[in-house]
Amino acid sequence: MELSEEELRLLEQMERALVEEDPKLASTLRGTSFQRAARRRMIVGGAILVLGIGLLIVAVLLDLSAVLQTVVGVLGFVVMLGGAILAVTSARSPGHQPSTKVRASGRTGFGVVDGGRPHRPNRQRSSAPFMERMEERWRRRRERGL
Length: 146
Description:
DUF3040 domain-containing protein; membrane; transmembrane helix; 146 residues; two-stranded antiparallel ribbon; DUF3040; 66% helix; mainly alpha
């Protein structure tokens, strides 16, 4: 659900008040410290992933009993999986990062656009079901061709 113009205006006023009242909190909310923490978690996750791969290789290369080899292999797989999950979940796509914009006053804000949805100016949603829209497009194509 998109925000109305009034809601967007109120949100920008609250952002400005937050920046004036507590610039440190506003800076934290913009994501700079969050980005560093996410990058650190990605690096730690990658290191754990490599450690898990190392355990798998050790399980294969060492001349261990079948039971011990299986235990070390499963442990290596679990460690590797945990590292991969940590690295992947801490990665943030560019679309999810808070956007900042510079206003005429020189201050930056969080920049809410269209209620948080990406802007598509020429795209209008039809209330007709998908198949009806496709049939209508097909009819128009056939009429143009004949």
